[in-house]
């Protein structure tokens, strides 16, 4: 296993994934309750962007774990 810094980096990436997911959920809620189509569209774009960010961070997380030689059971699991 990696050292203290590597563990901290993994923790930061884990937290970032959670925050991106939370932002996605927030924007999806905005999309659901917005009355005007223009606002729904804005929230939909923002929600999609957050999913892209989450995917990017998740890929970085698993790549880093692999570089550290850590076992990865399922890449879809957090």
Helix and strand layout, with pairings?
Layout: H1 4-33, H2 37-67
**Number of DSSP helices?**
2
Fraction in beta strands: under 5%
Distance between the termini: 18 Å
What does the main sheet amount to?
Answer: none
Low-confidence parts: none
Pairing-aware structural class of the strands and helices? mainly alpha
Number of E-type strands:
0
| Proportion of residues in helical segments | over 70%
Order of helices and strands: HH
Assign an overall shape: elongated
Key terms for this structure?
mainly alpha, 2 helices, single chain, 78 residues, elongated, 0% strand
Short summary of the structure?
The protein is mainly alpha-helical. Helix content is 78%, strand content 0%.
How would you describe what is shown here?
- With 78 residues, the protein is mainly alpha-helical.
- It has one domain (4-67).
- 78% of the residues lie in helices and 0% in strands.
- The protein contains two helices and no strands.
- The longest helix has 31 residues, at 37-67.
- The radius of gyration is 16 Å and the shape is elongated.
- It starts with a helix and ends in an 11-residue tail after the last helix.
- The mean pLDDT is 92.
